[in-house]
């Protein structure tokens, strides 16, 4: 491997995790939909102590309210930035602008919003949303425009759009700084068009490197054509690590068996939303297609976890030693990702484990690059599945 840096390589990286409200996991589901306050406090404290930069507060019709949880994160931490997941069907944009600006002021500029247009008709209908998927993205576009106007207009204004109408709003409540970063994700044509023209951040689930590279080029080309700054790129993985590659792959195969059983039984609380049949959202369809073609891609990407969950949410893994997984993360940084979300299947223990053993390796590599303008040895010394004769089944002892 050459020591030259790719022209696409991000120069910095920040890490994201998802906050969990209780110990229930896909490996060991707990029959509760509630908040275990002690667990939640320990979880967000672990994220801050372990060096994560952001935490995502997810949204669902049966989950805790993401804004309230984000506010709690803001008060329980000093540095961690809460990313509030918002579905535009659930609240009026001017109210969301007010909520976000309030959170941003309370956290002295740490708020971020991730807009979810909605990829499942049944889940949208649970809260009264019957728009077809293509129109949901059009609504998101109008929603984004109104968020930004609410934060920046200095005089009252009217609006008469396709989805929202009001008179004489403003000036609105301002954020701590000039604005609040807006993230959009998705793999449909509509997601790319809206995200490319309007988002500050565009998010992807973990896919093979060549495919992620092509998707980044696509969204950046739309931004360029619109005369907007290129988006930061957010990519999400579910790492499975251990002391040796062999132990990691044995763990991974065991995890897939347990997770598959959990999903078949319907014992993990979100499965009523996404299990069974062909998923409606393009991201899940792509994940299942990758899984059908191969279980292992590139240095460490593993798709069996997507296959056994019907690609329900972010579900592709990175498998190997901490060094191998860190090298794989750097591979994605090399194609342009500068926001990397890693969350495990053993949620609290994995968050601490990544903080001790993965994040520092990635940051050391980027520090070396900043100092020398060249790659370090991390990628060359940890080939993972790129090694000649690599066989995941053999490592895992399944044949």
From TrEMBL:
Residues 31-338 form the Luciferase-like domain. Keywords: Flavoprotein, FMN, Monooxygenase, Oxidoreductase. Coiled coil: none annotated. CDD domains: Alkanesulfonate_monoxygenase (cd01094). Transmembrane segments: none annotated. Its EC number is 1.-.-.-. GO terms for molecular function: oxidoreductase activity. InterPro entries: Luciferase-like_dom, Luciferase-like_sf, SsuD_RutA_monooxygenase. This is LLM class flavin-dependent oxidoreductase. The lineage of its organism: Bacteria, Bacillati, Actinomycetota, Actinomycetes, Pseudonocardiales.
């Amino acid at each position: 491997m050459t020591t030259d840096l790719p022209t696409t390589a991000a120069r910095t990286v920040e890490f994201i995790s998802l906050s969990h409200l209780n110990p229930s996991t896909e490996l060991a589901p707990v029959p509760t939909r509630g908040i275990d306050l002690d667990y939640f406090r320990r979880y967000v404290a672990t994220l801050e102590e372990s060096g994560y930069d952001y935490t995502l507060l997810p949204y669902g019709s049966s989950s805790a309210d993401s804004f309230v949880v984000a506010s709690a994160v803001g008060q329980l931490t000093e540095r961690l930035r809460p990313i509030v997941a918002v579905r535009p069907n659930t609240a009026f944009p001017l109210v969301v602008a007010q909520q976000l600006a309030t959170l941003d002021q309370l956290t002295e500029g740490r708020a971020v919003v991730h807009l979810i247009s909605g990829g499942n008709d049944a889940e949208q209908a649970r809260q009264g949303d019957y728009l077809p998927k293509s129109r949901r993205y059009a609504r998101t576009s109008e929603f984004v425009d109104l968020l930004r106007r609410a934060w920046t207009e200095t005089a009252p204004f009217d609006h008469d759009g396709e989805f929202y109408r009001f008179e004489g709003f403003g000036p609105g409540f301002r954020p701590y700084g000039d604005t609040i970063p807006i993230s959009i994700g998705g793999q449909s044509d509509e997601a790319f068009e809206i995200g490319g023209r309007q988002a500050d951040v565009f998010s992807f689930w973990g896919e093979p490197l060549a495919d992620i590279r092509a998707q980044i080029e696509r969204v950046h080309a739309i931004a360029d054509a619109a005369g907007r700054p290129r988006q930061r790129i957010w990519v999400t993985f579910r790492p499975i690590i251990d002391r040796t590659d062999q132990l990691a792959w044995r763990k991974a195969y065991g995890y897939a068996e347990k997770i598959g059983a959990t999903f078949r039984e319907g014992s993990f609380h979100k499965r009523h939303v996404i299990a069974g049949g062909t998923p409606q959202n393009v991201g899940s369809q792509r994940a299942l297609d990758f899984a059908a073609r191969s279980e292992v891609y590139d240095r460490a990407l593993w798709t069996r976890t997507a296959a056994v969950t019907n690609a329900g949410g972010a579900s592709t893994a990175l498998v190997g030693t901490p060094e191998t997984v860190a090298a794989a993360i750097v591979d994605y940084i090399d194609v342009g990702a500068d926001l990397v979300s890693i969350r495990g299947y053993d949620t609290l223990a994995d968050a601490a484990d990544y903080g001790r053993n993965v994040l520092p390796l990635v940051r050391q590599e980027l520090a070396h690059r900043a100092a020398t303008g060249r790659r370090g040895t991390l990628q060359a010394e940890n080939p993972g599945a790129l090694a000649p004769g690599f066989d995941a089944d053999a490592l895992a002892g399944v044949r």
